[in-house]
Amino acid sequence: MFRIILPQCITRMLPPWMNLYALLITATPLASIVGVEEALARTQAAVQSEAQASFLIPMYATLLVMFFLYTYPISRISNALERRFRTV
After folding, report:
1. With bands split at pLDDT 50, 70 and 90, how would you rate the model's confidence at 9?
2. d(Cα 38, Cα 79) in Å, to the nearest integer?
3. Which of 4, 10, 18, 78 is the most exposed place for a label (fewest CB within 10 A)?
4. How far apart are the C-alpha atoms of 31 and 22, rounded to whole Å?
5. Residue 50 and residue 42: Cα distance in Å, rounded?
6. DSSP code of residue 30
7. pTM over 0.85, yes/no
8. Residue 49 CA to its chain's centroid (Å)
């Protein structure tokens, strides 16, 4: 089981699990702290409250960096797991 069935199951199920994880992060109300729509809405509200165009690029750049720092490690871990459990 550990040498034949489990590696095949992990190899086939890892990409759908990562897709499900990404959907849960972006779509559930429990994850509204890191949700895409919530963060964009808060960034827009902050930019509009200042009423200065000079805050637009730094605010969105900060948001971009935050999401990159959150999703890049997940992508790297997913790729490493796929390579590790790849069957030849």
Report:
1. confident
2. 28
3. 4
4. 11
5. 13
6. G
7. no
8. 28
